Structure formats: C-alpha cells, structure tokens
Amino acid sequence: MELAEQEAAAQGRDRVTGDHLLAALTRLGEGVAVTTLGSLGVDLARTPSPAVHAELGRLTELARQEAAELGHRYVGTEHLLLGLLLENEAAVPGIGLRQARDQVIKILHGGGC
User: Fold this and answer.
1) pTM
2) Nearest CA-CA partner of 92 in 36, 14, 31
3) Alpha carbons within 13 A on the beta-carbon side of 72
4) In whole angstroms, how far apart are CA 28 and each of 16, 23, 31, 35, 72?
5) How would you classify residue 49: left for phi > 0, otherwise alpha for psi between -120 and 50, otherwise beta?
6) Mean pLDDT by 10 residues, the chain (113 residues)
7) Are 52 and 19 in contact (CB under 8 A)?
8) SS in 3 state form for the chain?
C-alpha cells in the first residue's frame, strides 16, 4: 500500500487508485501477485494496463472479499491483484479473474510457477 501511495504522489495525485496499486505491484517485483502474473506470461514492465480508477478503499474491500472466498485470514498481494481484476477484468490485458484466481491457488499450494 505504501508503494501505491508513493506512485500516486509521484504522479501528483492525492488519491490512490488501482492504477497506482498495479504500478506498485510491478515495482515490488515479488510476491504471489507478481509470481502469478509472471507464470501467466504477463510482463508488467512491458504490458500497458487500462486505467483502473477505483479508489484504494474499494479495492481493499474487494481484496478482503477475495481473501475470505479463498479461506485466507490475511490480505496479500495476490488478493489485491484479484480485487483489481474483480473491479475491472481488463486491468491486466489477457488475464481474466478466474484464470488469475486458479493460478494463485496453484502457486499457494506449491505448484504452477
């Protein structure tokens, strides 16, 4: 979240949106979300993403829903990614919510990398 806030500030924005969150995940370079996207052939550094203007509060709530649906008691990068895709399935071109969710599950269970 801190990286997303930094992304927003760097762009002169006072509110953090999905665009900033996705940019932060790219900058992070690690975590289940990045592993998921990489295993699905997405290179975030080279793949332009459509605008995701949902505010961070909404995306956080969607991420919590995804975490609960997966039976997790924490919110990780994977849930943030799924929340982004739930809000706007076009957030990551070529990757759908169901495909990403299935891949997250595989990675968390030790496969699919």
Assistant:
1) 0.85
2) 36
3) 17
4) 16, 9, 8, 11, 22
5) beta
6) 87 86 84 91 71 83 96 95 91 90 94 61
7) yes
8) CHHHHHHHHHCCCCCCEHHHHHHHHHHHCCCHHHHHHHHCCCCCCCCCCCCCCCEHHHHHHHHHHHHHHCCCCCCCHHHHHHHHHHHCCCCCCCCCHHHHHHHHHHHHCCCCC
